[in-house]
Structure formats: C-alpha cells, structure tokens
Amino acid sequence: MWKSIIFKEWLKVRWYLIGATLLLGVFVSYIFINVKHDITFQDANNLWYLILFKKYQFFGLIKYLPLLVGIGIAAAQYVPEIVSKRVKLSFHLPVNENKMLLMMLGFGNLSLLICFSIVFSIFISLSNCFFAYEIVNEAIITIIPWLLGGIAAYSLVGLIVMEPIWMYKIFYLVVTSMFIPLYYERGITGAYKPVNLTLAIITLLISVSLLFSAYRFRKGEM
Amino acid sequence: MEKISRYILVLVAILTFSIFLPDFYWKLFEKPNRSPFVLYSCIDKDFIIQQGRNRYDNKGNKLTRKEWEEKLPLLNMRQLMIYGLFPDSINGCIMDPHEIGLNKSFFRFKPKDMNTPQAHLFPLFESESGRVKIEMPQDFFRITKRMEFVDAKTNSVIKNKSRMFTAVLQKRGFAFPAKLIAGIPTTRKSCDEGYIVTDSKDQLFHIKMVKGHPYIQKVKVPKGLKFKYIACVDFRDKKYYCYLFSQKNEIYILTQDEYDLIKFPIKDFQPKKEELRIFGDLFNYNVIRLGENYTQVVALDKEYKKVAEYNKTWLSRAERKEGKVFSYIFPAQISMFNKYSDYINFYYAKTKGFNWIILNLLLVFGHFLILKRRKVIFKNHLIDFSIILITGIYGFLAVNLFQNKFFK
Fold this sequence. Notes:
The complex is a heterodimer. By secondary structure, chain A is mostly helical. Chain A has one domain (about 1-220). In chain A, about 75% of the residues lie in helices and about 0% in strands. Chain A has helices at about 1-40, 45-55, 65-80, 85-90, 95-130, 135-160, 165-180, 195-205, 210-220. The longest helix of chain A is centred in the first third of the chain and has 41 residues, at about 1-40. Chain A is elongated, with a radius of gyration of 20 Å. Chain B has 3 domains: about 1-30 and about 320-400, no CATH class; about 35-105, no CATH class; about 115-270, Beta Barrel (Lipocalin), CATH 2.40.128. Chain B has 10 helices and 24 strands. Chain B is flat. Classes of the chains: A mainly alpha, B alpha+beta.
C-alpha cells in the first residue's frame, strides 16, 4: 500500500523534480562560469576583495530559485489532488488519513531536500575550488535561508491548495506572502548567521501545516 | 495532530503579524526626530547648537547662519573666505589653510560597525613599495593557528611567506589565534600602516609588511586592559593609528611610532548602542556620543584633556505621542532588522508599561462574542483565549484566521 502511495507521489512530481534539479544545476554552473570570467578579466584578488569587503554576492543569481522550486513541487503534488477532489479517493483507503498525508508531505520534503542537497553540494565543491573557506562559509550562511524558504513555501503552498474555502485560501496566501519574505531579507553576506537555526526549526514545524487544511478538506468544511 | 498543526500555524501567523503590523504603524505615524548638531566654538569657548535650521549658542541666543559660521570658523573656512570674513588669527594663532587642513579629521563609528559579519581574510599591503600608489596584493592573510597567506589565483597557502610571518609573530610572543584584526583594507588611503591585532591573550600587536618582510611590534598594554573593537584611521596629521574601545567601555588612541595608549576622558561609552563622531581641528577634538534620546559632546584640547561638556536629552520614540498610542495597541514588536546590528534576527522588543492590556481584554471579549454566535463549547477554546490575552491583536487575528473548529 505504502509503496503504491509513494509511487503515486513520484508519478506526480518526477518530471518537475528532475527539471527543477537540472534548472538549479544550470544556474549554479552559470554562477561559476561568471566567477571564472571575473577572475580572467579582473584578477582573482580583486574579486576576493569585492566579496570580502564590498559584500558582493557572487551566488546572488540563485536567490529566488529554491522558492520557485518549492512552490512548483507543492503545486505539482497537491493541485492534482484537489481537482475533482481526487484526494478523497485516497482517504477511502484502509490507511490512517493523517499517516497518509504525512507520507505525502514527507515525500515532498524529501524530494526537495534531495534536489537542494545535490545542487548545494555542487555549489560548495565548486566554491571550494575558487575561494578560501572563509568566503565559502559566509556564502553557505547566506544561502541556507533561501533553501529553507523554498521548503517553507512548499509547506505553505500545500496548505493553501488544500484549503477548501476560497476566502481562507486568500487569507493564508496573505500570511504566506508576509511570512516567506523573512527568508529573503536584503541583508549583507553572512547576516543570517544568528537566525538560521531558528528559521530551520520554524521550517520544520510548519512542514506539518498541511494537516490543518487537509482536515478541513476531508471534513467538508465550507 | 491537526490541532498541533493548527497551533503551529497560529504561531507562524503571530510571528508574521508582530513583524508587519508594528512596521506598518511606524511607517504611517512615525515622525522624524533630528538630534542636535553640537560643536565647540574656538571663538566663544562654548558650544554652538544647530537643531534643524535653527542655530543657537549655549546661552540660548538665536544665531543667523552667518553668525553660526563665524563662530565655527575652522568648520566653515571656505565659506568664510568667500565672504572675506575668515580671521587672520584665532586665539593668537596665525591661520594657515595648510595647517588647518592638516589638523582636520573626522571619525564616525556606528554600533553596526561592530555588530556585522566581520571579514576573516585581509590583504597585507606593501608599506614601503617605493610607489606612489598602493597596490592590491595577490594574496590575503588569516591569523588562526598560524599566520597564513592564501594566494587568490590558486586558492592555496603560500608556504614561505606564511612561515616567515608566523615565525616572527611567535618570536614576539603572539598567542594564536587573533581575536581582533583591524586595518584599512583598501588601496584608497594616503599610506599603509598595516593592521592592529589582538591575540588570544588580549595582547596588542602592530603588523605590517615592509619590503616584503614582516614588521611586527608588540604594544605595551596596561595590565587588565582588553579591547573589544579597534578602528584604524588615516588622518593627515598622522598622530595616531587607531581608536580602541576597551571592554570597560573606555576610548583609547594608539599614537603613531611611540605606541602610547592614551585614554580619552569619556566615561562609559556604549559602543553597542551609541554612535560616536569625533571632529578634530586645529584647537580641539569634539567627541560626540549619540544615543537614542541623548547626546553628549565633550570638547578636548590637543593634549586630549577635557575642556567642556554638553549634554542634552529628548523624548524617545516610545515617549512621544505616536509611541504612547503604540503602547495601547501592541504588546510587543518583533523586527528582522536592528539599527544597532547588521545581523538579521528576530529582535524582540516588549512595549513599556501595560497599556496594551486594555485592548487585549477587549479582544478576548470580542472573541468570546464571536464564539458565542458560533455556539461552541467554551472550555475547548481556553488556549485561544490565553493566546489573545498574551499576544493581543496578533493572537486575535491568528486564532480567527486559523479557526479552532475541531469540536463541531
């Protein structure tokens, strides 16, 4: 049974997930093509100087991509479920409803984590080739909230999609559109250092938010 | 499980509202409050105050713009020269524009300079290259277990140079790693004086590179004196290398070549919350401390002795009308940004007093009326009532947005 549910989730998101990973990969590659170009044309020491003292973010290009990926995977996974209320079919399976929803959530979050981990590992490896670890560390601190923002957006978009009442959908959208920017504030490189752990905990907590609107959906809240 | 997910969403909504609603409020109603610009006049031997477009002397006499400029001739030299009013001599000292320029200095420190992600790699410039222009080196140094130079092109440690500098530092008694590294890491300066560094035992060192070789000077520091921030300066008079703020909130300077530490007669400077501006001229230093609702200006002579002091306070934002109204609406505020720090965080600020409790109680009652219309069992909503009582408007919006409808 569980295998079939996982397979169903995989069928829904597979092309999107592969596409998103490739897209992120292309952007990360482009970042380092840019770095190579800058080093060739203005010398590595000048680029290092800009990064260290002018807080130039050589990786800034990917800022909102994790957010788009998170929203996209949530849409790919949950929109088909509410079309003609298909998710109600799943609720009729002899499986605990919440367990099944948690399985869906777990699958989505894991997909995102795998996608982000692959791209993030490539980013760190390539950064280590060009820059000292002090620069790479600051870059990691800066990118982490962007990735967390993608995961939080996945959870909250799932919540919005599954909410049965349009008025509440709009309310949730308003809260989401005020909350998600907290991950993308315009700070200098490394500014998120004291708050990254708190953001990670909040992101982990809201990963179960879908259960609330799914409950309202299956109880036929109108 | 659904209930837990609801409370998580309520928490997220409270967090979001407590960031955005106060922010909207302040953007709509906050009025600017300019702090006075106060300087010591070498003519009056007293302070001259500028508040917006109004200018006064310290006795409260209103001054015209021209009178203000005449009382601060060293600040307004060029303007007075155009008027033909610049004096030939002041206090028996003949006015030489070159000498005036040489003694002019301005230093500004903001709490954000200290609370910011600090760089851990620095360029060590050649101090005596024999060239007019300072050139950016190809490598950057770090001081961790040893002093390492990393070549930016190859991203690898330059072994010989690292070994040479580490050996000299060890010989001078440097205890690795470094705690503070302060310098002027730019080529846009009159000359290079390297870096002022404190080690893990709070000893003070001056490190620079002269003709490719290390120049390392250990500075004699009084016992128990520890520094928490160092700001290097590049003034034309070349009297000192840097300002140093001690752990005991004192301000020091480190004189050039003699390496004497001189303490400014300024008490309890709070670098985490106060801005510092130091205007230097031919006769005086004006040390200006600027807090949220106060300023202190201390005039020093050229021997760094206190000549006069000016203090002024004004109403803080919380004490003004808009702040008082705020205290009736919002029990607290969270901000992602802080004017004292470059770091992003959830900065929590509780509203002073308990005026907000009135609105919180009204909102509890309002929620009671809403629930009464829905004909629910009240004991199932006690947590929601508590949330509203504590978090006020934020909680009221949150619990009504993510409604407690599990018990129908």
